[in-house]
Amino acid sequence: MYRSGDPALRLIVRAQPVALDEEVVVRIATSGVNPTDWKGRRNPYPGTPAGVDLVPNQDGAGTIVEVGSGVDRARVGERVWLWEAAWQRADGTAQEFVAIAADHAVPLPENASFELGASLGIPAITAHRCLTVAERGPERLSAGALSGRAVLVAGGAGAVGHAAIELARWAGAHVTATVSGEEKATLARAAGAHAVVNYREAGAADAIRAAAPNGVDIVVEVAPVENAELDSAVLASGGCVAAYASGAEPNVSLPVRQLMGRNIRWQFVLVYTMPDDAKRHAVAAICDALAADALHVGEESGLPLRRFPLEQTEAAHDAVEGGAIGKVLVSVGA
Fold first, then answer.
1. What is the pLDDT of residues 291-334, one digit of tens each?
2. Is 281 contained in some domain?
3. Sequence-distant (≥ 6) Cβ neighbours of residue 55 within 8 angstroms
4. Number of domains in the chain
5. Given 70, 160, 161, 173, which is the most exposed site by the fewest CB atoms within 10 A?
6. Burial 116-126, CB ≥16 within 10 A → b, else e
7. pTM of the complete model
8. CATH number of the domain encompassing residue 233
9. Alpha helix (H) residue ranges in 171-213
């Protein structure tokens, strides 16, 4: 845990939490690490409790061991994945037990590992929002919901990019991914991308247009400034760029008249401040995709796992900050 104004993490022992009304207590098996976890330690987000010990990490997976008033006691023993555990709260998933609102502990199928469960949360909800935020897009993904659509996933080897490829494929889209090298290209293909393009190579726009001859309908964008010119060149009329990360922030010029004539839209996405309905739609769609065995983790699925023990949570954060390829996890319990 850490304190606001002092991002250094320390390991302590404290009492197991008690479930309050509409809460459950979860024994954490695996905690997932996202970029906002280390960023939130350095610069706390609005609403972060002040003057108290804070436990990081939004995502995780484990088993319910206690339920509070208003929660079905049959949920005790249920395997679950967690989302937004630390948003405007003191208690994230980098600990053995966490008390959390019951609807933030979502049933995890028996055939889904805790490592997969801890890799969902922020990446998959973000990916779902990016894929559904287009003006003509569905509110909630389902099998075939994006049939006939062309999706471009920038950064196809990252956690959000991986989730976007898998969700878009499950929803029936034709998916092109951009990457920076052959190692990441291999991962994007393993995730299910129909076409993979190295954006650093000459002719990247031509290669994307060859894969999507009618233009790209949705761009899931990790670097909107750096990729603005490429995105503008490949979007179809009425297309949408859904940007979920900022990257560098120098001045950037857009061909406004050209984009206006094609009714192009730029939409920025931050999972924490998404509308509540959009979050509910995302969680429901993720559950459906899990039931369809459409979401995976591991080297063979395109998302390598890097594991750290609980006492090395700070090193896990450092790995994410350093651009580790794949998904960084903290192993907490059995």
1. 999 999 999 999 999 999 999 999 999 999 999 999 999 999 86
2. no
3. 1, 86, 90, 91, 92, 93, 94, 95, 98
4. 2
5. 70
6. bbbbbbbbbbb
7. 0.96
8. 3.40.50.720
9. 182-191, 204-211
